[in-house]
Amino acid sequence: MKETYDAIIVGAGPAGCSAATFIAGLGYDVLLVDRAKFPRDKVCGDGISATSIAVLDRMGVLKRIEDTNPQIYDGVTVSAPNSCIMMGKNPPVDGLTDYGYVIPRKEFDNTLLDFVREIPNVEVRERFHVKDLVREGGKICGITGEEEKYRGRIIIGADGAHSVVARKLSLLNTDPRHKAFAMRAYFENVEGLTNSIEIHYEKSILPGYAWIFPTGKTTANVGIGVGTRFMEAKGIKNLFNIFLERNCFAREKLGNANMIENTLKGWPIPFGSLPSKRSRGNVLLIGDAASFVDTLTGEGIYYALRSGEYAARAVSEVLKNPGKEERAGGIYEKLWKKEFKWKEFFQGYMLQPVMSNKYFVNFAIKNAGRKQKNADILAGVIAHKLPKSKLLYNF
Ligand SMILES: Cc1cc2nc3c(=O)[nH]c(=O)nc-3n(C[C@H](O)[C@H](O)[C@H](O)COP(=O)(O)OP(=O)(O)OC[C@H]3O[C@@H](n4cnc5c(N)ncnc54)[C@H](O)[C@@H]3O)c2cc1C
Questions:
Q1: Beta-bridge mates of residue 214
Q2: CB atoms < 10 A from the CB of 113, how many?
Q3: Ligand 1: which residue has its CA nearest to atom 10?
Q4: Euclidean distance between CA atoms 203 and 79, whole angstroms
Q5: 347 vs 107 pLDDT, higher one
């Protein structure tokens, strides 16, 4: 163990692994800590978009992921409250694959961390639960667990939706207008799965929506998400059961399936629409810790990977000049704001209440289903290949 690391990263999910890979790639020493022992479960829909695949490729880990023979999806099926359905194909976009993956996070995150473990200037420390930041002379200079402390020039909070690092900086997203809550479970013996991920707007669960994402030929990740500001007293678990019992597509596919024991779990989703900073001086927040999740689709893996890449860029700007570490935050803020368009987060935020209107959802999905071009555009937006503004111009 070193006395002082160039960068300490708290959390070894996609955000932390991305930041570790890119920072170490620049020749700096990294300490990556996580409270869990991997492989560990992470509540997620397990959808890996084409934009995520592009970052995984730049990290150099894509081949490893492909070697695990992941489930591919190349289309999106969406059903409306009136059971009308549209099926879109992922539209071709330059520089992006025409497909995404569905990979259980236990496997996906473990593949990422195994890759990072082999990078010579990264030290990985599991079962290290960060409790606080270490301050000296008004500056943050490290992290502390139960007993041990580590010092770092830059500290990166990649510790997810309940981030200790964000909380200690008073930057944790606790605003129900900018959060959702979601649950998922794994099912086996599922019937009628295709290479499409499925989104279902079941009328009894609006404004929530449900998904069935195939993880294999007969296995699926099934879940439901609801904006926290729309959450009703009856609770999300009830809504999940209502979806299974009442939705005709769920009954068709899951009627003979069984839920794998102990896999029904929930977790918050912090949205990118939160109007706040994501750094303070030499401490940067990335991924869910920074509240970087798409406001319409709940996609966060791309933002986790990409914000890790941007954090590395900011780190490289300041670490070559000792004493300039405090400038990292300012550089990072400019980088992420340029890439993660506020408009994208805001349009999704504005669409959330509209998507709770069953007449609008029926109309939009019926309209999308009429023309293949429109269905493909909607599929492209959901699969994060096209901006949401495409919906405004084409519907
Ligand atoms: C139900 C659900 C469905 C979703 N579906 C999708 C989807 O299909 N596609 C998609 O792109 N996104 C999806 N998301 C969002 C996605 O899961 C997150 O955006 C993504 O996991 C963020 O990655 P991360 O690395 O920032 O955080 P995480 O993956 O949460 O990793 C954080 C890590 O930090 C560690 N940690 C936490 N606290 C500490 C501490 N104090 N000390 C040390 N370590 C700590 C944790 O153990 C964990 O390993 C979904 C989310 C939910 C809840």
A1: 220
A2: 23
A3: 299
A4: 10
A5: 107
What pLDDT digit, counting tens, does each position of 167-210 carry?
Answer: 999 999 999 999 999 999 999 999 999 999 999 998 888 878 99
Structure-model confidence comparison of residues 384 and 195, the more confident one: 195
Regarding pTM above 0.85, the answer is yes
Which residue's alpha carbon is nearest to atom 44 within ligand 1? 34
Q: Check pocket membership of 223 for ligand 1, CB cut-off 6 A.
A: yes
Task: Let me know: does 143 contact 33? Beta carbons within 8 Å.
Answer: yes
Averaged over 47-66, what is the pLDDT?
97
User: What's the confidence (pLDDT) of residue 393?
Assistant: 61
Which of 9, 18, 35 to mutate to test ligand 1, by most ligand atoms within 8 A of the CB atom?
35
Cis peptide before 207 (omega within 30 of 0): yes
| Tokens linked to 138 | 């008004």
Angstrom distances, CA of residue 319 to CA of 12, 28, 59, 330, 336: 22, 8, 20, 14, 19
Q: Is 152 in the pocket of ligand 1 (CB under 6 A)?
A: no
Three-state SS for 219-256 is EEEEEEEEEHHHCCCCCHHHHHHHHHHHCHHHHHHHCC
Using CA atoms, how far apart are residues 326 and 330, in angstroms rounded to an integer?
A: 8
Write out the E strands in the chain: 4-10, 30-33, 47-48, 71-73, 75-79, 85-89, 100-102, 122-125, 132-136, 139-144, 149-157, 179-188, 196-200, 209-214, 219-227, 258-259, 265-270, 279-280, 283-285
Q: Residue 304 Cα, ligand 1 centroid: separation in angstroms?
A: 8
The DSSP code for 120 is: T
Q: Is the pLDDT reported for residue 233 higher than 60?
A: no
CB count within 10 Å of CB 368 equals 26
Q: Using one digit for the tens of pLDDT, what is the confidence trace for 77-109?
A: 999 999 999 999 988 899 999 999 999 999 999
Cα angle 10, 179, 310; round to 5: 40
391 DSSP assignment: H
Amino acid making up residue 395: F
Go through the domains of the chain in sequence order and give each one's CATH number: 4-68+103-173+271-340 (3.50.50.60), 177-269+353-394 (3.30.9)
Q: Is the CB–ligand 1 distance for residue 36 below 6 Å?
A: yes
**Cross-strand bridge partners of residue 132:** 144
Taking residue 340's Cβ as centre, other Cβ atoms within 10 Å add up to 20
